[in-house]
Amino acid sequence: MTTAYKIWDIPGGIHPEQYKTLSNASEIQPAVLPPEIILPLNQHIGAPAEVLVNVGDQVKTGQLIARNKGQISVGVHSSITGTVTAIESRPIPHPSGMPALCVVIERLAEEEILFLPPLNDWKSEPLEILLQRALDAGLAGMGGAGFPTHAKLNSRGNIHTLIVNAVECEPYITSDDRLMREKASEIVEGIEITRLITGAQKVLIGIEDNKPEAITALQTIIDRIPDKGIEIRVVPTKYPSGGEKQLIQLLTGQEVPSGSIPATLGIVMQNVGTIYALQQAIVLGKPLIERVVTVTGENCPNPGNRWIRLGTPMSFILEQVGVKADGPHQLIMGGPMMGFTVMDHQAPVIKTTNCLLLPEPKPEQPILPCIRCGMCEQACPVNLLPQQLYWNAKSHDWEKAELNSLFDCIECGACAWSCPSNIPLVQYYRFAKAEIKKERAETEKSDRARLRFEQRQERLAQEEAEKEAKRRARAEAAAKAQQAKQESDGDNAVNSDMKSEILASVARAKAKKQSQAEPSAVPPKPVLSTEQLKGKWETLQSKVETARTKLDAAKTENPEMVNALSTALGKLEEKAHQAKLAYQQAAEEENKPQ
Fold this sequence. Notes:
Layout: E1 36-40, E2 50-51, E3 58-59, E4 64-67, E5 76-77, E6 82-91, E7 99-107, H1 127-136, H2 149-153, E8 161-165, H3 175-182, H4 184-198, E9 202-208, H5 212-222, E10 230-235, H6 244-252, E11 267-271, H7 272-284, E12 290-296, E13 304-309, H8 314-320, E14 332-333, E15 340-341, E16 355-357, H9 375-379, H10 386-394, H11 398-403, H12 414-418, H13 425-517, H14 530-557, H15 562-591
Parallel strand pairs: 8-9, 8-11, 9-10, 12-16
Antiparallel strand pairs: 1-7, 2-4, 3-6, 4-5, 6-7, 12-13, 14-15, 14-16
Helix pairs in contact: 3-5, 4-5, 4-7, 10-13, 13-15, 14-15
């Protein structure tokens, strides 16, 4: 066993009573199937899964009943064989106490298994197949917030170190401890699978020194692997050494920058329970349908660790350990430091449920004013200023809270544990974070609405401009057509007048000849005489001169009238010309010898 390694220190931290011996002495108990399971669609960070079944459908154990919706999401599998009886809002384990959409399945007597095909020769499988299996099996982080495993592992090329988090530093919880003792071989194989997927050259297993049996079990298996490259690093028992950034600092001496993730340092971390679930999914094709849960506490008659099918109502588990489900006892999901009280005991076990704690009732301590003692600052493992964040949150000064690195707080509870005034500091920080996120969401929503409005206004303006251009084009085309029609009508009128006058002159000539030949004939209808035609021509010519004068004046005084006057002048000139031709033709006819 390698011992020549360095363990760095982390700032702050506390040493609460462990209470781990309540549950770590006995083996993990096998699962007892409940008559009904309740499967929330969001048991992980990210988008809720999308339901694939309907009420009345029969499903098998391991069958996918809700698929992932996007990359930061995972599917949900049925943990029993039964009939879907409802798809509705039910109580779920969440600090808010709010219900959420769940698939409810009633168990049938005979169980039918529907697992994925095993990948026995996983070392020769393409990496894409291994990553897809993590997604298909519905794997999410089982030791923290439930980040989708396939997304966390999909960073090959940037990772040089894989850290396996086996610290389990929170009091009472021993599920990982017992899992390592009993499933060490499977866990080590899961580590090798994870290392292959991520491409990590080095593997560090971080584990507290209060788990000697688990350390021995893992080391025994690791020693059998040639060229293993896997090292167990034992760290002192200190809370919260199991935090992701804290464990990285303990094992490597590196600090993950604020707002960054371990991958920026070439490190990826996985919880030991997630590693085991990955091995089961790859080697056996088993989706994530059960997990080890520590059921413990001073109020628990039969504490220990149990395999529990996901979706099992917590009330059913309480009955299994000899506790009345409707009793007045407090039930906490998680540990005493970071866990939260479950308001409705019908809420189900989910992928991130590592402990159900039934603590001893304690008299409620009065909340006293902050005395600025600084003990919270000394306990903070992130080097924050908890009392400043407390005042920021209490006064709703979100801007200063962010400036004081509120979102770097890991909500470990070390500050509240050390506070002599019993101030629930973490609750203030959670409230502040929620309000800031709410404001950000509202701002983003408002920005999106404003952007949509501006885009709509721009689109409407463009459409109106296009309509106006079309209207203008139609108006110009109509004006040109009207002008052409008027010019055509003017030409036709001039031609008609000229033709009438010529015909009249011809008729007069014929009538004159006829009257000379036949004196007794009835005289023809009077027509314009040559002198009348001459007068008409001269009148039109006078109008032409007048129009020319007006046009010359308009060119300097009223340019807008130039086009209209030019058009009118052209028509008058044409009429005058036609009148002149009519007069000349009539004069020639009149002067011809008889």
